[in-house]
């Protein structure tokens, strides 16, 4: 009898008449009839395996209709850790959904079915009525409760099989069905069992880290996050293999740790994990963004530096941009543009650049009054090139252009171009591009550009600037000249109106 994790493998051969050995492999669990799923697969409200998991604003994951039922009935449950979830935003958690489906497939368990809204509301009403019994108490008794809902019909008993128990009756349980022979078993003709699992090392490494991450001992938590940070610093394969929902769930709680060393190394390890493209969406959907936002707001300077880098990395993926903005990352990122750390300012600015590539975040930034902040940084010469990138993005939407005109952006850009304050070719091109975006504002732009004496500056750039800058300067000059030609033509508006009324009356008659 050998043990592997929480499973037992009976490898005792039985002699047969033919002289061949037949090896029977069984899996045994602590429960005689059910297999308990990982806690992160269970909805905290329904206590059942989730079929349609979603992340809410507070970073918790629930069954979708559990959230909707709580919303409909105005119920805010108190979870096992004492926290109260925020249901204001709901985002589908695809990563955990597929992890649950893979887990069900691995153990030959029927996939869960979505919880009907009526059942969810009845359950929430029961929770509301039982004022003496909190969600935390229900969660602690999940062994007996998590399978009681009739909607799912997912009692975690294995499907019927043709396997039979071993000769050790004291260990008799319902075995798992094995569609194919386990990869760690040898061929039937071998004289002894050999356990061979190519993924065992990675799984054991992940399990060791997770156990320590969840340890109540702070020194073990610190040891685990430092180890995770070192492993993922250069090893790309480890970044992918270790970025699992279980590890991310354990890491999320430590990002909020009050112990500086634990928090710093947790966020740094997360940055390393986020460097892999396949991990970026997983991390956001694991509910880590709210914890990172808290670090931006109140973490140590070094933790804030790593958190800004994490948002820079995560915002590169188009699938994350809207979610990160909706969860509230924009205000603290704006605030960190004035951080004392140059690296923090740089990463915050680049995160804002990538986030502002989508319209919803551009609108949020304008409403936050970001234009004044960004122009102030441009005037001071700090982060000029990166801040101009964000302003270029804001200039692609009407509300952004209006806010920039109101804040005096035309004069700021023209003065920069005139005084040769731009320290690189790229910064000059970004400045002229931002000015060009404002040229779409019609007569108001023309008046402000004329007041700033932009014609002279633009003519100089058209002659001596880079190719990209010359093209933009030429287009702005064309816009301004077209406006001038239109103004030179005197129009008798009374005559035009009279003529229009006359034509209209003729058509009616």
Please supply descriptive tags for the structure shown above.
509 residues; 7 strands; mainly alpha; disordered C terminus
What does this structure look like?
- With 509 residues, the protein is mainly alpha-helical.
- The protein has 26 helices and 7 strands.
- The protein has helices at residues 64-73, 94-106, 117-129, 135-140, 142-145, 200-213, 218-234, 236-242, 245-255, 260-274, 277-285, 289-298, 301-315, 318-326, 330-335, 342-355, 359-367, 370-380, 384-394, 398-406, 409-418, 425-438, 443-451, 454-464, 467-488, 493-508; strands at residues 2-4, 7-9, 14-15, 21-22, 53-56, 61-63, 90-92.
- It has a 3-stranded antiparallel sheet with strand order 6-5-7.
- Strand 5 and strand 6 form a beta hairpin.
Distance between the termini: 103 Å
Q: List low-pLDDT spans.
A: 1-33, 131-199, 504-509
* Rounded Rg: 31 Å
Q: What form results from the Cα inertia axes? A: elongated
Major sheet summary line: 3 strands, antiparallel
**Helix content range:** 55-70%
- Mean pLDDT, all residues: 76
Please identify the structural class as seen in this structure: mainly alpha
Number of helices: 26
Strand order of the largest sheet: 6-5-7
% residues in beta strands: under 5%
What's the count of strands?
A: 7
Oligomeric state of shown chains: single chain
Topology:
Elements (H helix, E strand, L loop, with lengths): L1 E3 L2 E3 L4 E2 L5 E2 L30 E4 L4 E3 H10 L16 E3 L1 H13 L10 H13 L5 H6 L1 H4 L54 H14 L4 H17 L1 H7 L2 H11 L4 H15 L2 H9 L3 H10 L2 H15 L2 H9 L3 H6 L6 H14 L3 H9 L2 H11 L3 H11 L3 H9 L2 H10 L6 H14 L4 H9 L2 H11 L2 H22 L4 H16 L1
Helix pairs in contact: 1-3, 6-7, 6-9, 7-8, 7-10, 9-10, 10-13, 12-13, 13-16, 16-19, 18-19, 19-22, 21-22, 22-25, 24-25
